Amino acid sequence: MLPEALQRRQNDLEMTPKPIVPPEQLSEETRELFDLLNHEADLAVIRIATSFLDACLKSILENHFLEGNTSERMLGHSGILGALSARSDLCYVLGLISKGWYNDLRKFAEIRNTVAHHHLQLSFDDEDIAKQCNELSTIELIGMGPEQMTPRTRFTLCVAMLANWLLITALQIKQKLKVTSPRDPRLIRYTTSPPPE
């Protein structure tokens, strides 16, 4: 069972629309995330970590989209892009994240769904959860295979690495040209030579 405070927070999140958290705020919250990843129970770690990665993807897309109600509605909790899998799919097809990051994000969603839809509380010691954690590939960039760490350690290190990369991506997109309208003259691209001045 989730601690009472976490359960109340989860209930509040499910009932109210989630605001889009700017990457700067998410970046400030990574320290708290890392503390939670190291000290909370397995179920809480899985739910909090995937929620944080989801917030990072939401921030990336918010920075990439035109400003306005349509973007907010699409990214909202009940919008077409309200789920982690839909956000990761779109970020991947837009070229905003790599295939490796995309595969790991899909695996995180799978792990979260495994624990969310099970009638008993699961942990990283569960055979299916451990197998899914061992399939995460981001951690292999530092040269460590599944046999060198526990499934929980592999999961938390992958979350930490991926969260940082996603936040950097969100900040890079935010610093690029922010278009507020599809009619913005800065969007016009000439296929031949530009018209004479």
Walk me through what this model shows.
By secondary structure, the chain is mainly alpha-helical. The longest helix is centred in the last third of the chain and has 25 residues. The C terminus is likely disordered.
Element order, helices and strands?
HHHHHHHH
Strand content: under 5%
Model regions low in confidence, pLDDT < 50 over at least 5 residues: 190-195
Shape: globular
Report the C-alpha radius of gyration, rounded.
Answer: 19 Å
End-to-end distance: 69 Å
User: Quick one: biggest sheet?
Assistant: none
**Average of per-residue pLDDT values:** 82
Q: What is the percent of helical residues?
A: 55-70%
Number of helices: 8
Which structural category do the helix and sheet elements fall into?
A: mainly alpha
Total strands: the figure is 0
List the helices and strands and how they pair.
Layout: H1 4-15, H2 23-39, H3 42-64, H4 69-75, H5 84-93, H6 99-116, H7 127-134, H8 151-175
Helix pairs in contact: 2-3, 2-8, 3-5, 3-6, 3-8, 5-6, 6-7, 7-8
List keywords for this structure.
61% helix; 197 residues; 8 helices; mainly alpha; globular; disordered C terminus
Task: Offer a quick outline of the entry.
With 197 residues, the chain is mainly α. The chain has eight helices and no strands.
